[in-house]
Amino acid sequence: MPTTAAMLTPAFVLAFWTFLVLIRVAVVRIGAAQCGEIVPDDFCHGESERVPRHVSIPNRNYMNLLELPVLFYMVSLTVVVTRIASPAMLGLAWAYVVLRLVHSLVHLTYNNVLHRLAVFAASNVVLLVLWLLAALALLG
User: Tens digits of per-residue pLDDT, 76-102?
Assistant: First the structure.
């Protein structure tokens, strides 16, 4: 049976990665502002069409890290609090985090949409299976 620390470590890694991407957003925006590529009003209502791709992509990736991963954090906490952690759940948690990191790296580097989609879809399947295992352990 995985320990609480073992089960929460993937969540901490993903949270740490999310903060790193947030720092990347700030660095890219500050650099673009210093070069005159953007102005503060470009972000008045989200991002205006004036915002260059190299500035908007890190922000979009950051938003991705705040969307479905919420379900990952929730299932991770549920598994720990209810003490139903299993080696399979721990493996799935790590698989999810690795896939999300790969998704970010694809998005933030060469940004091939088909590669991104494949990794994104795989991460969602892993997350769904993790939820199913948790539900079966709790309700079955």
Answer: 999 999 999 999 999 999 999 999 999
Closest CA to 79 of 13, 21, 8: 8
Question: What is the rounded distance in angstroms from the CA atom of residue 24 to the CA atom of residue 108?
Answer: 10
Q: Which of 85, 96, 100 is nearest to 127 (CA)?
A: 96
Q: Render pLDDT for 9-54 as a digit per residue (tens, 0 to 9).
A: 999 999 999 999 999 999 999 999 999 998 988 888 878 888 999 9
Contacts for 22 with CB less than 8 Å, ≥ 6 apart = 62
Q: Which helix (H) or strand (E) element contains residue 50?
A: none
Q: To 5 degrees, how large is the angle CA 48–CA 28–CA 11?
A: 100
Q: First and final CA of the chain: distance in angstroms?
A: 18
Q: How far is CA 127 from CA 59, 65, 72, 114, in A?
A: 23, 14, 7, 20
What Cα–Cα distance (Å) separates residue 88 from each residue in 2, 60, 79, 84, 122?
10, 31, 12, 11, 16
pTM over 0.90: yes
